[in-house]
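Worked Example 4.2. Consider the chain below.
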Amino acid sequence: MSEQGLEAAIERYHQGFAENNSDMVLKSLGPSYTMFSGNYSDDQTQWQAHMYLTGEDLKQWPGAFLAEAGPYENSFEILHSYKRGKSALIVTRDTGKNRFREWENEITTWLLGQHEDGWRIVGMFLKDIANPE
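Applying the procedure from the previous section yields the following structure tokens:
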């Protein structure tokens, strides 16, 4: 698979949220999905686990997120892409907004795995966000 296949998974993720299309978001995700946050810090001891989803929880998440945080929009630029075997890491610079926050030039790190039907997102790391108190 090419870097284009990797980029397509991330594009599908954002497009699904922007179009309020939970199925499209799910097609961008692997059988499990984890999210971490940096708690606005370069100090790794401050970083946080946010969520890990599988099964029914994963299927329900995109719709629940949109109901709570939509509408959603985001544009991104790929800054770095590294692929090794069936795993890949992509770093993007994102600008967008949802009901709770706006972001500009936010660095996002994506973890992807290659499945039978293409690349799927299995995790993401957002440095400039923290878990709700």
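The two ends are 41 Å apart (CA to CA). The longest strand covers residues 102-115. Compare this with Example 4.1 before moving on.
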